[in-house]
Structure to design on (248 residues):
């Protein structure tokens, strides 16, 4: 006869449908516990495709999204410069802005990698899905999270976010982008979270935002929820004044 175990030690039970509310609550409480413990209150969130290859993968002959490979280095440089700015400017003034991504390969890896190379802590909110998504090695150990539920992961993307940078991506990136825009359009997020679309040519071809306004599907005012940039310098010229205004 098996000895009695408290229910919260019973892994077999915790994986049942009956215990789903406990799993959901855990995905809310555990990140909250870590963020409070580590005094994380501000994040710079980077969205983008897992399929954009690193230089190492390009050398191996990987052709997936190779024509967009330059975005990897852009995300890496941006992560580096944001982390360096945070350490040199924000931290001495009592604030810390951490680069946060979905934790996977591609653009996510690049942004985490850049922040890691700058010597800053970096957050990865990984998700358990059948393909493509695996935690990249540049996430700080204390900030590596694995989620089962997309909506809880999205909550933690936005809760501490002070700015969102959206690189080219597919369904997942589009989902994250449009949910963020919808929450702001409907004022379900009370504070403004600026959305920066990185790569004008990509975004103008994939989504004709002005036409949505012209057709009356969104208000002209909604176009102000986002801004497009093409280079790291241009992105920083938009992002850093926004972040600096929050530490003055």
């Amino acid at each position: 006869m098996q000895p009695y175990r408290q229910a919260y030690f019973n892994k077999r039970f915790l994986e049942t449908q009956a215990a789903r509310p406990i799993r959901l609550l855990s995905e809310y409480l555990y990140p909250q516990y870590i963020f409070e413990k580590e005094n994380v209150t501000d994040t710079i969130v980077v969205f983008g495709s897992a399929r954009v290859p690193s230089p190492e993968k390009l050398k191996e002959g990987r052709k997936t999204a190779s024509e967009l490979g330059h975005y990897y280095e852009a995300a890496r440089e941006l992560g580096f410069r944001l982390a360096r700015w945070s350490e040199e400017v924000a931290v001495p003034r009592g604030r810390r802005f951490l680069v946060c991504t979905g934790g996977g390969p591609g653009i996510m890896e690049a942004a985490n990698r850049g922040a890691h190379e700058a010597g800053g802590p970096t957050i990865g909110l990984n998700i358990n899905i059948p393909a493509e998504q695996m935690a990249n090695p540049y996430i700080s150990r204390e900030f590596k999270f694995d989620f089962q539920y997309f909506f809880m992961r999205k909550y933690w993307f936005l809760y501490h976010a002070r700015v969102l940078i959206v690189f080219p991506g597919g369904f997942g990136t589009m989902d994250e982008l449009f949910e963020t825009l919808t929450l702001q359009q409907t004022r379900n997020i009370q504070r403004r979270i600026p959305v920066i679309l990185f790569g004008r040519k990509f975004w103008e071809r994939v989504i004709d935002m002005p036409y949505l306004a012209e057709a009356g599907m969104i208000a002209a005012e909604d176009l102000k929820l986002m801004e497009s940039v093409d280079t790291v310098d241009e992105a920083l010229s938009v992002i850093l004044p926004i972040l600096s205004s929050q530490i003055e």
Observations:
- Residues 13 and 117 are 42 Å apart (CA to CA).
